[in-house]
Amino acid sequence: MNLKFFLLSLAVSASSVSGAEKLDVLLTNGRIIDGTGNPWFYGDVGIRGGKIVYVGRAGATPKATETIDVTGLTITPGFIDIHSHAYDSFRSFPDERLRVAEMDGRREAKLRPGKNMVAQGVTTLVTNQDGRSGWPIANQISILEEGGFGPNIILLVGHGSIRFLAMGDDFRRNATAAEIEEMKRLLRRGMAEGASGMSAGLEYVPGRWSNTDEMIQVVGALKEYDGVFVEHERGSGEGPMWWFPSSPEPKGQAGILESVNETIRIAEATGVTCVCTHIKARGADFWGASAAAVNLIQRARDRGVNIWADQYPYNTSGSDGNTTLIPRWVEGDDQRKALKKILAHADSAALLRADVAFEITRRGGPENIIVMDHPKRRYVGKTLTELRREMEKSSVETAIQIALDGKKDRRGGGRLRGFSMSEVDVETYAAQPWMMTASDGGLALPEDGFVHARFYGTFPRKIRKYAMERDALSVLDAIRSMTSLPAQVLGLKNRGVVREGNVADLVIMDLNTVRDKATFFEPHQYPEGIEYVMVGGEMVVEKSEPNGALPGKIITTWREREVKQ
After folding, report:
1. Is the dihedral of CA 329, 452, 430, 132 positive or negative?
2. What are residue 502's phi and psi, to 5 degrees?
3. In this structure, is the dihedral angle defined by the CA atoms of residues 354, 359, 365 and 367, taken in order, positive or negative?
């Protein structure tokens, strides 16, 4: 482009904006990272009617009803959380805190604004994950829209939910051809009612009894809508979380590599956009496996397979910090009594100890398992290694002693958290250009106690720790992983990029100060540096404080594409 043509184009753009009616909001003098991975530039962003109508050189825009000088701040697209459990309570029995009620003369609901999500820059949430969804989807949408919500919501149909509907209680087997056809019919119904794809929880009930052929056939129905398939793996380490040495099933159940291969097979056979969600390499004896998983995905992508992945930027899993080293088969209202009974017999005691040893390794080893809450306060804040030394016992006997000393109605006696992933694997995954960012978190309030820090800090943490501090990827790529990349995967044509004509879902942050503050002992802390957040041109965060606004919309991706076209 020659200089004369460039100047002419600027003049045309400026005149078209200046000749129009006054802007609603003008963000001026900002550093703009547009979400594509392109370098930043200084300029203004003008908003009218919930849309971005101007992106360009400062001073070329008309007056606005509200002008916000964002000098020193960075404007980015709003963050799209590709795997969220926010608003899950609307699937069946709503949390009372989600109900709209009269509070101080205003109609409010504590959780509907999604304050812990918008505070970290999230403007769109993809929900109904892990194969679980409301039914029918139309009812879920109706309940959501009745009271409003903060960020936008994209709903998925749960494979597990429609498998239950098709098979009833007889789900511990492969589905018949007729049952698969019924699942496909239900999936099509859910999509027609407003869903944008399907999720599966193949490590959970009832998805774990499905086979790859079933998944290929059901997922294939998404092709009609160009929907997305988000798969929770059959196993995230060497094997699935339900497997123990005492399990009747033989060793060798599907782990992360087998799961990735299965998702590749589904994507290749159907042509549907498939996502390996919250990808990880769990277990101290399985660290480093991210390299093999990355190689599998990259080789598939190189031959044209439409497969992607997402991660949360933490080395610990579990939403509520409730790692339990005592296996589920230890049953009884009084767990201490049940344990003592098992320990009194040599055979059952041997099974117990083998399972506990296995779980300690799977949860990251004794040095990476920490006591979060326990009746014996001297245990709290210490690792299993530290307590083992104090007790002069083995790791297994220490875990059993913690359970015996704890609450009789809590399996394991207290609340533990295991840091079961390696930072090396987290960084390896983060560096991939096809890796999105996801929270795997839900809505939270301080009274919820120990939630995962990702509920509050996922997106600022990716930027601060893994881009700025660890240099696993650039800041531009970190922002791309949470904006234009998930928009591309979901097929969103008008979000994810700071571009004229797009919806004004925006984040204005201070890159000098942006960081997560949530810790595992004190998770309910908003991040620093997220100064303003807009959903559809309306502020939901102002001066780092969520304001309780409810401008969110239900987004049905295939309908938006029809409108766009």
Report:
1. positive
2. -80, 160
3. negative
**Structure-token match 């949470």, residue found:** 482
d(CA 441, CA 452): 7
Is the confidence at residue 255, as pLDDT, over 60?
yes
> Which residue shows structure tokens 């590599």?
257
Distance between first and last Cα of the chain: 28
Using DSSP, state whether 65 is helix, strand or coil: strand
| Three-state SS at 202 | coil
Residue of 178, 79, 48 whose CA lies nearest to 533: 79
pLDDT of residue 565: 43
The sign of the torsion formed by the CA atoms of 239, 242, 248, 254 equals negative
Q: Where are the beta strands (DSSP E) in 292-350?
A: 307-311
Contact 532, 542 (CB under 8 A): yes
Summarize pLDDT for 76-126 with one digit per residue, the tens: 999 999 999 998 867 655 677 887 776 566 667 889 999 999 999 999 999
pLDDT (mean) for 174-181: 98
**Residues composing the chain:** 565
Q: Which of 232, 267, 259 is nearest to 129 (CA)?
A: 232
Q: Which of 1, 56, 42, 51 is nearest to 21 (CA)?
A: 51
Q: What is the 8-class DSSP label of residue 172?
A: S
Burial of 93 (0-12, 13-18, 19+ CB in 10 A): exposed
Closest CA to 174 of 232, 183, 157: 183
Residue 306 to residue 228: CA distance in whole angstroms: 10
Distance in angstroms (rounded) separating the CA atoms of residues 213 and 305: 18
The answer to whether 160 and 132 are in contact (CB under 8 A) is yes
Residue 209 sits at φ, ψ, to 5 deg, of -95, 0
Nearest Cα to Cα of residue 560 among 511, 512, 513, 490: 490
153: exposed, middle or buried (Cβ count in 10 Å: 0-12, 13-18, 19+): buried
- Taking alpha carbons only, the member of 477, 542, 534 closest to residue 503 is 534
Collapsing DSSP to helix, strand or coil, 296 comes out as helix
3-class DSSP state of 436: strand
Check pLDDT > 80 for residue 312: yes
Q: Are 161 and 137 in contact (CB under 8 A)?
A: no
Q: Which two tokens stand for residue 297?
A: 């995905």
**For residues 312-326, average pLDDT:** 91
Rg, C-alpha atoms of the chain: 25
- State the chain's mean pLDDT as an integer: 93
Contact 191, 227 (CB under 8 A): yes
Question: DSSP letters of 379-423?
Answer: GTT-BHHHHHHHHT--HHHHHHHHHHHS-TTSTTSSEEEE--S-H
pLDDT of residue 12: 40
Distance in angstroms (rounded) separating the CA atoms of residues 20 and 424 = 52
Distance CA 421, CA 425 (A): 7
Contacts with 543 (C-beta within 8 Å, 6 or more apart), sequence order: 531, 532
* Contact by Cβ (8 Å): 164, 206: yes
